[in-house]
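User: Here's a protein and a ligand (2-acetamido-2-deoxy-beta-D-glucopyranose). What would the complex look like?
Assistant: Let me lay out the input and then the predicted complex.
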Amino acid sequence: TSLGVNEPDFSAMDNDGLGNGRLWRLIFGFVFSLSVNRCAGYILKDCRISNGNAICSANKLRAVPRGIPASVKTVDLAVNKIAAIRVGDFVNHTVLAQLDLKRNNISRIEKGAFAALRSLQKLNLNNNRLAQLGDFFEGLSNLTELRLTSNSITTVIPSSLKPLMNLTVLDLSFNKLRHLTNVHYAIQHLPNLRYLFIKKIDITIFRSWELTNITVGPAYLDLSQNNIDVFAISADVFQNLTWLNIGGAPRKRKLICEIGEGTGLKRLTTLDIGGLHLERKDAAALFRSVNFSLSTLRMNAMKRNLRELLNMSCTIPTLTQLQLRGNRLQLLDSTLLRLCSSVTELDVANNRMQNIFSDAFRALQGLKSLTLSQNRLSSVPPAVRNLTKLLELDLSFNNISSLGCDDFAELRKLRVLGLYRNYISTINLCVFKDLTNLQVLKLQTNRITKLNGVFTRYLPNLRQLKLDENRITTIEKGAFEGLRSLQNLSMQRNELQKLESGSFVGLTMLTDILLPSNQIEETEITAGVFNDLINLRRLNLLDNRIKYRSSSALPEAPFSRLSQLETLAMAGQHGRGRSQLPRNFLQGLSNLLIFDMRNAQIVSLHQDTFKHTPSLQKLDISSNELTDISPRMFDPIHNLQSLYISRTSLRSLDFLKEANLTKLEFLQARRNQYSVITVEQMASLPSLVYLDLQGNGFLCDCDNSWFLQWMNKTPTQVYDAYNFVCNYPLNLKGMKLLDLDIQSCSVDVGFIYYVSTTCAILLFQLTAFTYHFLRWQLAYAYHLLLARLYERKYRDRQPNCLYDAFVSFNAHDEDWVYRELLPKLEEEQGWRLCLHHRDFEPGKPIMDNITEAIYASRKTICVISRKYLESEWCSREIQVAGFRLFDEHKDVLILVFLEDIPIWELSPYYRMRKMVNKRTFLSWPRAAQCTELFWEKLRQALQSTDNADGELLLLTVEDKG
Ligand SMILES: *[C@@H]1O[C@H](CO)[C@@H](O)[C@H](O)[C@H]1NC(C)=O
Ligand SMILES: *[C@@H]1O[C@H](CO)[C@@H](O)[C@H](O)[C@H]1NC(C)=O
Ligand SMILES: *[C@@H]1O[C@H](CO)[C@@H](O)[C@H](O)[C@H]1NC(C)=O
Ligand SMILES: *[C@@H]1O[C@H](CO)[C@@H](O)[C@H](O)[C@H]1NC(C)=O
């Protein structure tokens, strides 16, 4: 904005500076705009892919990492420990446009290492250890910018840069090239070179013909910080040179200029001869060669005869920008600049000036920009009053403590006024009364305690007001009422405690307000305060003391009229105790896109918190002690794209499963305790492209095998996955999650087939074998088992006995049962009997029927004949009844033999044999003579209740044998 800043800005790749305008970007994080590239991702080791850029910087890498996706446009490998670039490091990167390798230890580059990079346009190798410019640039035919500053290059192989036929920028500064021939070797085959930087390459003699004989040559030549003794230019070279810097040398010796007549500095517009000691005749030769072309002259920190040099140079009629920094002028009198009438931009910063004569600028009637910063002025010098054409005035970094009513009296055209870094404590209303065109006023870093109504009337065109780092405690009602064009108001780092209702009245054009690092409490954020800011887009209240004690609704929401607000930053609220957010806090913010509530000591969020902000895209609630989040909280904000929940004590990501976050692309959840990531959680985020789980301790067992597999195949980029460590089980603590062997977790289908087929075959053989040799034993065991199963089923729901006895018999013996047994027992003795054919429920499985009948009866009478023993059902009845005996200690079984069967024939019916041996049976054939006794014994048997072992009643009709 001020003098002589015409030089090109090539610093894009190493731009570290922080402009004022970047504050918002800084505060709200680079990541909001991060629309991550879908096609690249996965779990790239040591790099992060964002927006088509691979960022692998500051990672202590010793080699170029493998697997950087071929689709990326830029690769940043700066600040690592890479020692060599090898063939194979960049094989597939045919679309790569920028490669940053600065600040590594690169001492060797293999021939052909860059051969595949045919789209590469910018290559930065600054601050490495290359000693020679060798022939390793083959293939870089599209390269336009090559930076090699601060290596140790001493030699250049003559055609090393020949492949770079499109190179326009070459920076070889800070190498020990020592002789221009080396530079000549480097540039001789670069027809398109326009910018040549050879700062401090230890040359002492510059003779143009040693560099080049071609007439066109570069347009920008930086030779600064070389200790040049001789500067010689022959005719007809550098015909395009517009920018030349030969200054900046810490030298004491004289510079001898040998400028050929009619030579080619004819187009030079910018010349820097800062710090040089030039004799009159040399200076005259130099200035003569640029007469009628030069517009910008920098003579900073000149060693001698500044006045003489000024008197010469100011005769150049085209000179408009003059920079005279660091010349220890101390005072500026009317003679120094008397010939500089064409100058419109003057920079006399850093000259220890305490005094400026009131007619010092009399000759400079066309002055538009004046920089007086970094001097020792204690008041605004009266000399500036007459500069009626002035557009910009910089008085920053002086000792000004007060401003007078007439200080800026005539500066009606002034647009930018810099008064920052002074000692101003009070300003009166009259000070800015004539600055009707002022657009930017910088008053930061002073000692202002009160606004004193200074902004209530004048400055109708002010767009930007900076009041940061003062000591303002209160904004009174209407304090900014006169600033009807104000768009940006910045009051960071004051001591603001009090905002009065109507503090911002009149600021209807305001779009940005910065109030971070003050002492504002929640009681000041009342409904009235912000109501006037109807055009506000960004409100920053970072680092204040806004803490609510309860989440209940406020009587009136504080931002209810800010419907245009897009960003609300409230991170870092401090003060004692925990905090809540009133559930209607965001009411009215229907266009809110970003809400930052990081580190505000919030302990819970009501599920209605975001009911009024349907447009929300980015939500940052990191670093709060939230133990729980209701998934319902996300219902109104289904457009959410970025969610930050790092350091929130949330124990799992399960809330995602129920939240409708189908558009979420970015999730940062660092340093929580998510030990297991499940398929359901990730399935609920179908749009996710970037997942950052850094610093969680993972469970290293099969529970995470899905997560491990997913990471390897998902298009979602899982940031830093290579550094995920196991936290549990203890024996694996500290191991890398990705090193976990999950082979054993997934079962091999082929193996299952093999095992099951083998088992089936073996089983079949076994069955065949047993059937053949052991079928009877098996059949018995089988029935035993079935009987046991059924018995278990019925044991517990034993109904009250429906029958006195269940009669089990074979169809062959039906005759006897119906003619003899039934009439006797049912009609004569009055028992209720259950008979197979009569009482079984039709349709029910026969086994169920039998078992039910046995359990529904007090006793079971088995009518045994040879046929009965051959029938499988009958023997099962005996067994079920047998189990009842065994389990309930109830002898329910009454055996009635219709035939004499020798004991040995009973042998498969093991239980029965035991009973027969114990003589607890009745034999019909043997009772043939006295049937009455037989029926009486049967009656007794039926009558008896519990006789555990059947010994109490001797049921034998007659003793055996
Ligand atoms: C080289 O750059 C030009 C313009 O920047 C571009 O059109 C061309 O496609 C590039 N060549 C390659 C091989 O990428
Ligand atoms: C330029 O020409 C001069 C004289 O003809 C010669 O000595 C010098 O080597 C040439 N320089 C280059 C860089 O070719
Ligand atoms: C530039 O040219 C003008 C007009 O011819 C002349 O008066 C002036 O002295 C010249 N300046 C220098 C530095 O040669
Ligand atoms: C989830 O959000 C989408 C829009 O993003 C909507 O179409 C869908 O109905 C929502 N589903 C539920 C269950 O709310």
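Summary: Confidence is low (pLDDT under 50) at residues 1-41, 947-961.
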